[in-house]
Amino acid sequence: SGAVLLVRLIEGSERGAGTALAELAFFGVVLALVTWACERPLLREMIGYLRQRDGGVVAPSP
Question: Does residue 57 fall inside a structural domain?
Fold first, then answer.
């Protein structure tokens, strides 16, 4: 992601495990925000389908 590369450019070349985990978390947040912003109608449709489901087992008719 461009955001993670920008942080690396600003920060420098020294990276430890904590920095790698922070970059991974930052990437996940940016990915979630961009997905939500670009795919909002699709996500609403998906949530609508999930809310309509019964979730129960349909009993066979006699």
Answer: no
Is 58 part of a structural domain of the chain? no
Residue 1 and residue 39: Cα distance in Å, rounded? 18
Find the mean pLDDT for residues 26-31. Answer: 91
What three-state secondary structure class fits 50?
helix
In the numeric block, which tokens belong to residue 32?
């979630």
Single-letter code of the amino acid located at 10: I
Burial 1-30 (b: 16+ CB within 10 A, else e): eeeeeeeeeeeeeeeeeeeeeebeeeeeee
Is this prediction's pTM over 0.70?
no
> Residue 39: which residues within 8 A CB-CB, separation 6 or more?
none
